[in-house]
TrEMBL record:
This is Excisionase family DNA binding protein. SUPFAM superfamilies: Putative DNA-binding domain. InterPro entries: DNA-bd_dom_put_sf, HTH_17, SinI_DNA-bd. Pfam families: HTH_17. It comes from Caldanaerobacter subterraneus. Residues 4-53 form the Helix-turn-helix domain. GO terms for molecular function: DNA binding.
Length: 56
């Protein structure tokens, strides 16, 4: 089963501000699901973002 991370966890892993992560979700740059009041980002989506940033 795939693991899901909070915006805070993703921001810490990417070393970015949480507001940047929320902005990217809103812009569609990050695929996320909303569970109640909390956005969650899948492990596969986090890996996709990490791989894209390696290629920049």
């Amino acid at each position: 089963m795939e693991e899901y991370f909070t915006v805070k966890e993703v921001s810490e892993k990417l070393k970015l501000n949480t507001m940047t992560i929320y902005k990217w979700i809103k812009q569609g740059k990050i695929r996320a699901i909303k569970l109640g009041d909390t956005w969650r980002i899948s492990e596969s989506e986090l890996n996709r973002i990490l791989n894209e940033n390696k290629n920049v």
